[in-house]
Amino acid sequence: MANICQSAQSLVIPRIVFVEYTEEFLALSWAWLNDPEIKALTMTPDFSREAQLNFFRKLPFRPDYKIFGIIVNDEKSGACGLKNMTNAEAELWCYLGLKKYWGMGLGGPIIQHIENESKKLNISKLYLKVTRLNPRAAKAYEKSGFCIDSEFPEYIQMSKCI
User: pLDDT per residue over 132-145, tens digit each?
Assistant: First the structure.
């Protein structure tokens, strides 16, 4: 009987909440995006703490950028958002900094949240870049309806009309 209960517990889907991206997320993002594996998977260039803080301080004045903190099971776990927003399209991006949540199927709900936010902003097309080092993410985007537009040596560009 204990095995049945353990199996049922392993099927529990983590609870995801999207919140304001605060300075707490900023500090965590410093660590997450400087982790060599996450840095490679997100194609994050080198940046200084000063540059990161300047980025954060300018967010309220940027109509082309929208960012959310991701909380999974009551833990600050990552960030997602839209950048390079125009009247009709935007670039989707996201990452989970807490690796214990990788491979748990959270990509779909995160993508759905960004699509819902995009619709509120009258954005009709989303696009993204995913490194070839991250086939799991590419698969999540494909499952969510994104199609490959272009292929480059280091990354694939995908898009979806919403």
Answer: 999 999 999 999 99
